[in-house]
Amino acid sequence: MKKTIIITGTSSGIGKHLAEYFGQKGHRVYGLSRKNTESDYFKTIPTDITDEKAVENALSEILLSEKRIDFLINNAGMGMVGAVEDATKEDIRKLFDLNLIGAVQVMNAVLPKMRDQKAGKIINISSIGSEMGLPFRGFYSASKAALDKVTEAIRYEVSPWNIDVCSLHLGDIKTKIADHRVMSTVSEPYRSTFNKVFALMNSHVDQGTETAEVAEYIERLLNKENWKAHYYFGKFGQRIGVPLKWILPQKTFEKLMRKYNQFSS
Questions:
Q1: Minimal CB count within 10 Å: which of 12, 26, 47, 124?
Q2: Which of 121, 127, 130, 144 is catalytic?
Q3: Number of folded domains in the chain?
Q4: Could you read off the pLDDT of 2-42 as tens digits, one per residue?
């Protein structure tokens, strides 16, 4: 059965691939992104999701054509790199405004319709890095961890209406995310270590999972009846970090993370 799917952040990367993938399957797909993207497979509604009124207007436009909203994939987001000490308040606010508040505003916009139809599913795209404080990506980890906790809370709140919500934690995906990161000016004490970690970070993205595999995984997830709160998808070497974080003593886990990130002993 064909579904109505809203996807945020569809101008490039994972979001664009998801929109085209589901559009090719015959679903009615609406992409919300700041940039207008021409496609034969989905309709773009230019929307800054950090602007609450713009989100409301986009949903009103969709509901002029659609009787239902079946799925929301909250994909829009950005990365941020640099030492915690070097981050500016402005950059931190910008990051949380998109990765947390923007995602919440889109959820809030679709929930009234999902309650009316007593059904709906929402995927909040998170990161494996939300389960741990990644060096030189501390605020990115924090922004996604905050979204995870909101996801856990809202699952209880909307369950009476048969609405399901989950966090999908992705590892490194082969996209141009590096082109859109917020990047702090790195101060001298951190520069040598940062340069090494940053090069490794980018190599992990270059060798990351293909977006086509993400789309196929999400399609299987959307077809599941009952969701868990959290799903993890990516290279094994990254996914294994999650259970290790849970079971290992903190000092042992930190030692492994230093080795993985090639910190000096």
A1: 26
A2: 144
A3: 1
A4: 999 999 999 989 999 999 999 999 999 999 999 888 899 99
The one catalytic residue in 11, 127, 130, 184 is 11
Domain coverage including residue 16: 4-260
Q: Please check whether residue 127 lies inside any domain of the structure.
A: yes
Assign residue 133 the CATH number of its domain: 3.40.50.720
Task: Please indicate, yes or no, if residue 90 is contained in any of the structural domains.
Answer: yes
Active site residue 11: yes
Q: What is the pLDDT of residues 45-67, one digit of tens each?
A: 999 999 999 999 999 999 999 99
232 is catalytic: no
Q: 140 catalytic, yes or no?
A: yes
**Cα-based angle 69, 66, 111 (whole degrees, multiple of 5):** 30
Distance from first CA to last CA of the chain, Å, rounded?
Answer: 56
Q: Is 126 a catalytic residue?
A: yes
Pick the catalytic residue: 140, 143, 167, 190? Answer: 140
Pairing of strands 28-33, 43-46: parallel
The dihedral over CA atoms of 228, 167, 136, 261, expressed in degrees to the nearest 10, equals 40
- 126, 127, 141, 143: which one is catalytic? 126
Q: Tell me the average pLDDT across 199-206.
A: 82
Does 265 map to a domain?
no
Q: Is residue 37 within 8 Å of residue 45, measured between CB atoms?
A: no
